[in-house]
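Hey, I was hoping to borrow your eyes for a little while. I've been staring at a protein lately and its backbone has me curious. You're getting the sequence in one-letter code plus the fold written as tokens. Would you mind checking whether the tokens look sensible for this chain? Here's the protein in full, and shout if anything looks odd to you:
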Amino acid sequence: MADVVSLRRQEPSGLVLREVSGKVLRLTLNNPPANALSIALLDALAAELDAAAKSTDIRVVILAASGEVFSAGHDLKELTTHRADDDRGRAFFEKSVRLCADLMLTINRLPQPVIAEIDGLATAAGCQLVASCDLAICTDSSTFCTPGVNIGLFCSTPMVAVSRAAHRKQAMEMLLTGETIDASTAKDFGLVNRIVPKQYLRQVVDKYAAVIASKSPQALKIGKEAFYRQAEMGITDAYDFATGVMVENMLARDAEEGMGAFLGKRMPEWKED
């Protein structure tokens, strides 16, 4: 595990708590009791991720949550208050849903890998948040659902991330039934990578983050971007694209250093961007 170089925390009143340990940034949703994705929380989390994207010191981001709910999704109370607006809430609804979608794209396009650390319920846009992260590790008591259909509101935007993380028919099962699935089922569906006992959650997530953070930051950035771009292509185009990426990666300084270190039987020394 990487040595702890620094440890900084935001004031506990913040909607998103920030902690840096070595090359790892931990962002904790702090909007109790449900960690609802209000406009304010979405803005706060987006600002943190934008700052991380510009940082050469951060190699991995962990997304966690305080309390017993990872996230209940959009703040329905906040949305409902705007039904009294002249446009029946249309402008506010569009703003809220667009901000959420943009946040998911920010995670997808972030140069650093993002690990979701889930302990509790992740529902609707909260489940979307889990599905949008590159890796997801949860406790054995965590649960997941896309329950919009139960209140006459199909989870259309969560569907985008969930259908790309879970197997297609399993994603449709979640979306059509609105039923809650347990951690084991979520792993079978493809929503999460690992299930661990509650008392070991942070330890396991920190270990994953430290292992990833020890790799070439240049390779991580190139690889994450390429992964998502090729996933949207047909197989022939994907191989053409990946071939070009691989060649350029081979010419990059970290690949030269890594290959030389391997052949020289020594540890590589990665350069900071």
